[in-house]
Design a protein that fits this description.
alpha+beta, Cytidine Deaminase, domain 2, six-stranded mixed sheet, two-stranded antiparallel sheet
Length: 141
């Protein structure tokens, strides 16, 4: 996600998250395994647009390459403008990722490592930033 973000320069880029959804000692957790770039999503400065065509293309790719993984949500970048969900982001999440286990990951690829990633999830019908997060990342300076 970080390297996809840096390839975008100051433009927003994004994609989809796939993996597994599990329960351990009554606590649900997500195992994000694959980030699939959405190459046709349009990034214009501060907002990234996912439309029905982007979704159709993603579902076709997922069926072909990752039939056994669950769709866990989406990610996008906020180059240089930090980690939060805009109103537009919330709209996208409500429109396309409204299952209880769906998350939105926001990445600012230019922030120091520990401020770079935010994970937002559904809690009782509202989107809030997750707090139990374990990141396994490749070393990115
Ligand atoms: Zn955003």
């Amino acid at each position: 996600m970080v390297s996809h973000g840096r390839q975008g320069g100051s433009r927003e880029v994004g994609g989809f998250l796939l993996g597994g959804y599990h329960v351990h000692r009554n606590s649900p957790y997500l195992d994000l395994q694959v980030a699939v770039p959405a190459l046709k999503a349009r990034g214009e400065g501060i907002s990234l647009t996912f439309d029905n065509e982007v979704m159709r293309e993603f579902h076709a790719e997922k069926a072909e390459r990752y039939p056994n993984l669950l769709v866990l949500g989406w990610y996008h970048t906020h180059p240089h403008h930090s980690v939060f969900l805009s109103e537009h982001d919330v709209f996208i999440h409500q429109s396309f990722f409204n299952a209880p286990h769906h998350v939105a990951v926001v990445v600012d690829p230019y922030k120091p490592r520990y401020e770079r990633v935010g994970v937002f999830l559904w809690e009782e019908g509202h989107l809030s930033q997750g707090y139990h997060l374990i990141l396994y990342t490749e070393d990115q300076r």
